[in-house]
Amino acid sequence: MNSTINALLEAGINEKEIQTSHYSLTTKFQEEPKEGVEPKPLEFVATNQVIVKLNNTGDAGKVLDAAVFAGSNSIQRVSFDLRNPQPEKDKALALAIKDADRKAKIAAMAAGVRLGKVLEISEGYGFVGEAVPKSLMYADGAITPIQPGEIEVKASVTMTYTIS
After folding, report:
1. Which of 68, 89, 145, 162 has its CA 20 to 30 A from that of 60?
2. What is the pLDDT of residues 89-110, one digit of tens each?
3. In the 8-state DSSP scheme, what is residue 37?
4. What does pTM read for this prediction?
5. Do 11 and 41 fall within a single domain?
C-alpha cells in the first residue's frame, strides 16, 4: 500500500484526497499438520483499501494505472459525482415545480375544476450517472480508458392544491 500511495501522490493526487476506507489483517487457513511433517508457519493476509477523490476526471485512467503498476491488485469501483450539486439541484427543483404546475392545470381543466392555492410541496432528488465501461489494460502502455459520461440531476415534486 505504501507503493500505491506514493504512486498516487506522484500521479498528482493531493494527500488530502486519499483516505483509508478498509483495513483488515486475517490468518490464512492452515491444514491440519500431518504426522511426521513440519507444520507450515502461520500466514497472514493484509487487506488495505483507499478511496481516491479526483478533481479532474480526465486523469482517472492515469491514476488507476499508477495504482496497478505500483502493486494494487484490486480496484473495487470507479464512480463519478458532483463536487457541489446544490446549483444543479436548485435548477432541477425549479423545473420540476413548473412541470408539476403545468400538469396540475391540465388535469384540473380536464376534470372541470379550478386550481386554488398551493397547500403543500414535497420534494425528492436523485442523481443518475451513465454506466462506466469496464477498464481494459493495454500492453502497449496506453492509459486505461475511463469515460465519466454525464451525471443527470433529477428532482421530483408532489404538489397539493385547493380546488374549486
Report:
1. 89
2. 999 999 999 999 999 999 999 9
3. S
4. 0.59
5. yes
